[in-house]
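Milestone M4 deliverable, item 7.
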Amino acid sequence: MDRITAAEVFVRIAERGSMSAAADALDMSRAMVTRYLAQMEQWAGARLLHRTTRRLSLTEAGEETLVRCRRMLEVAAEMATAASACADEPRGLLRVACAQSLAQDVLAPAVADYLRLHRQAAIDLHIDSRPVNLIEERIDLAIRITNELDPNLIARPLGHCDSVVCASPAYLAAHGVPVGVEDLATHNCLTYSYFGKSLWQFERGSERIAVPVSGNLSANESQVLLAAAIEGAGIAMQPAYSANAPIAQGRLVALLPGFVPQGLGVYGVYASRRQMPVSLRALLDFLAARFADPAHWPPRESSSPARPPGRARARNPTA
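Output delivered:
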């Protein structure tokens, strides 16, 4: 736990009289303020605040802790910082959390280029599809692909990820090619646990279309669904950066020309904008600039209207 930050959060809560006001003053999310307060109470070994529906007030232990926290912050402010020509050079370790597909296909080459530019920096990648608790797991930055970002989180938009609906030639030969999005209801759709598990969304011009989908395989890692689609298990909605290569190689076929699958926003999520480390700011700036280049976010491969020979469009996904 960052005890200096926790002390500052507690002092601001005491001065402002509420956690919401402290969060605004510190440019920090309300959830993060609550976590720092809980950590401070755990550190102090006592309850520090009386909470009522109207206001917060300090307990006796809170009064004593407030004095100590103010003293701690004064000492921290007085500490001399050695001047250095490299003071603004990113250095030290950053712990970055990311899903496997994004880390493998997009983030790994970006990180490699970043580390070549900044020789004193180091990055520890934590690969996991689930959302992480930044404070408890000591994560400096989480890269998330989502359209439903928690409004309580502090996040910086980094880019946009196109999606593509695809299937293997073998699956399409056996079960037919969906001509319209409504045909997906008759197919075995491979669904992602954290996004669009039962409803895939599309755009056609100004029209938005939501299509119920189902199938016999779902997973919490999109790479698993990509591999299953290549093996002929069904139709998958995949990030374009993952699907473009097997589409270009002929192992998958892009489907539904004229219908644009819902894309996703890419965000860098972190704990606080206040006193952001140079290394974290530098990495965020680097990723934002890199992902603004369309070359690093491959567009959807053009969907092919051609049908595999030998079968008409099937209505039974298990036929």
